[in-house]
Amino acid sequence: MTTPPALTIRTAIQSDLPALTTIYNQAILAKQTADTVPFEVSGRQAWFDAHLDPQFPLYTALLDDQIVGYGTLSKYRGGRPALRHVVEISYYLHQSHQGKGIGTRLLQFLLKEAKQLGFQTAYALLLDINIPSVGLLKKLAFQQWGHLPNIAEVDGEICGQYIFGKPL
Fold first, then answer.
1. What is the DSSP letter of 32?
2. What is the mean pLDDT of residues 70-74?
3. How buried is residue 54: exposed, middle or buried, by Cβ count under 10 Å (0-12/13-18/19+)?
């Protein structure tokens, strides 16, 4: 059995933004997100800035100092006080590094961080056509909590959105 490559996960820094934007744009083109038009780097700055809050961080995943993915912890329902213990988890991998176990390790890291930050519940929203992500969430004991059928149109294809969640 081969040893998996050394993965480093750290808080994102401003100079990561171009690579993170490239990775997100790959997800858009692969129909793995509800955005349908790729972003310019400047168009992702507000998103990056929103994750400067240490309670809702953005993490960069690196293999040998090369950015291969990222993950975020985000507010649920605008941070309404009654829902303060719930966090949305999002993760994206560079297309050339998918299917190699990196997503599993990144998601495990995000879950651990979420728990350390005091969250009690994690959830993920994803298009129901994003089969690899469905498999990853199930692998890490997320349960399907909801399905909004036929609410999205991605490149002319009608699809739904899943809600997966798990207590921490």
1. -
2. 98
3. exposed
Do 123 and 144 touch, CB atoms closer than 8 A?
A: no
Tell me the C-alpha distance between 66 and 147, whole Å.
36
Is residue 61 within 8 Å of 70, Cβ to Cβ? yes
Taken in order of first residue, the domains within the chain and their CATH numbers are 7-167 (3.40.630.30)
Tell me which residue has tokens 């969640």. Answer: 165
Question: Could you read off the pLDDT of 88-133 as tens digits, one per residue?
Answer: 999 999 999 999 999 999 999 999 999 999 999 999 999 999 999 9
Q: What is the mean pLDDT of residues 140-157?
A: 96
Calpha distance 149→4 (Å, rounded): 37
Residue 64, burial from CB neighbour count under 10 angstroms (0-12, 13-18, 19+): exposed
> Which pLDDT belongs to residue 88?
97
CA 161 to chain centre: 15
